[in-house]
Amino acid sequence: MRQKAPSGDESRIKDNGALTDGATPADGSPHAHTDAASMPAFHPLDIPQQSLDKRIVAYIQQLIESGELRAGDRLPAERELAAQMGVSRTVLREALHTLAAYGLVELQHGRGVFIAAGSAQAAMQRLTLAMTTNVTEPQMRDLFEIRRTLEGAAAEWAAERATPEQIASLRANLAEGLALYQSGQIDGGVAGALDARFHAALAAATNNRAMMSLMAALVDELAFAREQSLAIPGRGLRSLHQHEAVVMAIEERDGPAARRAMLEHLNDVERSILKTLAGEDGLDES
User: Fold this and answer.
1) Between 1.10.10.10, 2.40.160.50, 3.40.50.300, 1.20.120.530, what CATH number should domain 120-277 receive?
2) Cβ-based neighbours of 52, under 8 Å, separated by 6 or more
3) pLDDT bucket at 127, cuts 50 / 70 / 90
């Protein structure tokens, strides 16, 4: 693979955060592109409007989409990659788990982190071309139609298939969000990161790699919808309570109830965004 010079907007970021130790792959590894000499150079980033872990996710996703990272490539060891990117290992580890939930990387214990095989890259490119950042009402309706299909099924499958650890991860996300809201220590960036992690964890809890890849394909479009939604006063806390209803149904192993709770959440968010696009107050009283 090619070494690539950093773009002009890539500069060091400051952080007090911290990835997963990537070990040398075992002999006979099936991965073809693991030569360190062919690995692209990783650089510190500076995108202040995004949370740090989200910047790392977007950066590595960009390297995958551009072809600089290919299926089977092994990332540098955690300590080395964290140093190259100028972040702490804890923040890097969180970003890698998000990438794994989206089906973009595989975390192989004792061997390292590998770029996943599959068609998520092509799907992302097609979907990105179909949507623009200047989203119209019909485009937003199209997006939520897809979200209802995918995430309704994801919630139902998670109720049927999620491991206790995966359910605990969903519950921990809710607890973290509630604590932040109660303390007043939350802003749009933090709320967006929490929301993104919830939906990524939900996709992972289906234990269906195709679902995780499809959710990865939607990540850019979901980011825009999330930005639109969380800009509405009161929307973030309301979404958190709706996430709670989804998780309760998953904990009770009630698939149909989990699907209904997710659809109610998505319908409510869609209504809020469409009202905002029309210049109205986005949050209905309930």
Assistant:
1) 1.20.120.530
2) 13, 15, 17, 87, 91
3) low
